[in-house]
Amino acid sequence: MRVLLTGGLGYIGTHVATALLESGHEVILLDNLVNTSETVLEALKTLAKREGLAAENLTFFEADVRDLEALRFVFTASKPEAVVHLAGLKAVGESVALPLDYYENNVTGTIHLLQVMREQGVFTFVFSSSATVYGEASQPPFTETAPTAPTNPYGRTKRMIEEILSDLAASDDRFRIVSLRYFNPVGAHESGLIGELPRGVPNNLMPYVMQVAAGLREKLHVFGDDYPTPDGTGVRDYIHVVDLARGHVLSLNYAARHPGYEVFNLGRGKGASVLEVIRTFEEVNGTPVPFAIVDRRPGDVAISFAATDKAEQTLGFRAEYDLTDMCRHAWQFQKRLLHEQTER
Question: What ranges do the domains of the chain cover?
Fold first, then answer.
């Protein structure tokens, strides 16, 4: 299929694009370049050529999903047959400080995208949701039928979009929609060519660990050590980004054959604490990560990990990489960046 991939030059987007190419799809990348740059496109094309993939099947449009006319142009020019929607703001703490920005970008942008899809007769849709929709309404492992009660504006935008998608599929049986509730994507492609490259101060654990290990930042801030967890730090279900990308391809294949609306968790089904991630990184890579305990971050929950039975049984999805792989591959990507900066 010709697949429109919004947020296609982002961290997850580049890995999903690679997985789609590996599966023989054409990929139309759409990104507004707010959190990335066109240099990432060159890295993606280099990776495609190195892996023997059809780099000519990559097309890029700079556009914003909130811009209806820009979306109409992209659809008319590229004629996608399906959409994988990753574009959106995603920092929990920032969403608490800037809720209007998050509702306007995430919810309005998705509505505009769906409107243009319907106008253009495109009805297959995979949505990047989040495990933050679960909040603290139930205890992990979270099943897809667990109550949802997100504790921050970011999570609430994802839950609102899920409700919109469910209502849309119920109102129009042409739509085939899958929402993927990501847990915590980390790691990088094993080639070291693509990975997580946040602008400014990282909002997620692993890229912050990378920058501290690389000497770019003095120390890691661990947000709270008084949670009801074995070592007091937050526990999350970390999933390798390459596994996550493979889950998108399986979900796209499923959506293409099944009208209606479905939700799947994508995680490993087990949690790791912040301190466990730090220790694993240090052991795997032989590089110290200085850290300091600071106050809890608004909107965070103590423990979050997935029930993975539904994705395994329905999609045939099972995560293959472990935390050791995630730490090793993330550091390979960071070391390549350091080498390139030294060479300049």
Answer: 2-187+239-267
The model's pTM: 0.95
Q: Distance (Å, rounded) from C-alpha 55 to C-alpha 288?
A: 38
Highest-pLDDT range among 50-54, 136-140, 144-148: 144-148
What is the enclosing helix (H) or strand (E) of 342? Answer: helix 323-343
For helices 11-22 and 241-257, angle between their N-to-C axes, nearest 10 degrees: 60
State the greatest distance between any 2 C-alpha atoms of the chain, in Å, as a whole number: 56
Q: What are the backbone dihedrals phi and psi of residue 256, each rounded to the nearest 5 degrees, phi first?
A: -60, -25
Q: Where are the beta strands (DSSP E) in 90-200?
A: 124-130, 176-182, 184-186
Would you say 33 and 65 are in contact if contact means Cβ atoms under 8 Å apart? no
CATH no. for 2-187+239-267: 3.40.50.720
Query: Where do we find the tokens 């800037």?
Result: 98
Distance, CA of 307 to CA of 270 (rounded, Å)? 9
Cα–Cα distance measured from residue 314 to residue 305, given in angstroms and rounded to the nearest whole number: 19
Does 344 score more than 80 pLDDT?
no
Measured CA to CA, the distance from residue 254 to residue 243 in angstroms comes to 17
How many alpha carbons lie under 13 Å from residue 262 in its C-beta half-sphere? 20
pLDDT greater than 80 at residue 343: no
Which positions ≥6 away from 77 have C-beta within 8 Å? 61
Rounded CA-CA distance 210/329 in Å is 11
Q: Catalytic residue positions?
A: 154
- The single-letter DSSP state of residue 29 is E
Count of beta carbons in the 10 Å neighbourhood of residue 118: 14
d(CA 10, CA 37): 9
Closest listed residue to residue 158, CA positions, set 92, 211, 216, 222:
92
Is 270:339 a contact under the CB 8 Å cutoff?
A: no
Which of 242, 322, 238 has the alpha carbon at shortest distance from 273?
238
Rounded Cα distance between 202 and 64, Å, is 23
How sure is the predictor about 92, in pLDDT bands with cuts at 50, 70 and 90? confident
